[in-house]
Fold:
Amino acid sequence: MTNSVINPIERPEVTQQLSENVILTTLDDLYNWAKMSSLYPMMFGTACCFMEFMAAYASRFDMERYGMIPRATPRQADLLITAGTITMKYAPNLVRLYEQMPEPKYVIAMGACTITGGMFCVDSPSAVRGVDKLIPVDVYIPGCPPRPEAVIDAIIKLRKKIANQSIQELPQLQQTHRYYSTSHKMKVVPPINDGKYLNNPTREASSKEIAEATGLPLPAMLQKTSEAEHRFS
Structure:
């Protein structure tokens, strides 16, 4: 009984056997294999998570080995990685970029600020509490910021999700309506530090004790206050 070598060192020879020259597959598997092996993410970043996204493309991790070539235009990209905080002012631009991407397209929410608002979810009136209020998200990457290994893990999970899709289901996965940010119902209050506290008359001149000791004149408001104190005394 001879042991067959699974991965021989020698170069494989061309044979006439039908099993070694014909590949049988389905159209869904062929389409999904081509799609998951050529994801083109858009060069998109708004905060510190984009630094980790760039590190994933560096020589140590080399995310291009998955066939992912970053594109600088949404019309040539099919993957949007929201790397960084999304603000209310930038939300319309994000939706516009997503709608300019061709179908089928995918979104990865990277970082806590993108998923829930992160450290800005408590007292910031401008941070969006979750990018899924604006566009549909396929994979979430928790962390602040997540490391490049987490980005690669999210890419692997997205590839598995694409591998389970069917061409017949693609029309059902397309966007049917626009996504808008919900109202956060924040109560607008006037700011405490309005920049006018330096114009307070009590700060423009010295106090009454210092003025009496140095002989400097008191401001008009302090003079009225001192006259009233003498009158009641």
User: Anything to note?
Assistant: The chain is about 35% helix and 5% strand.
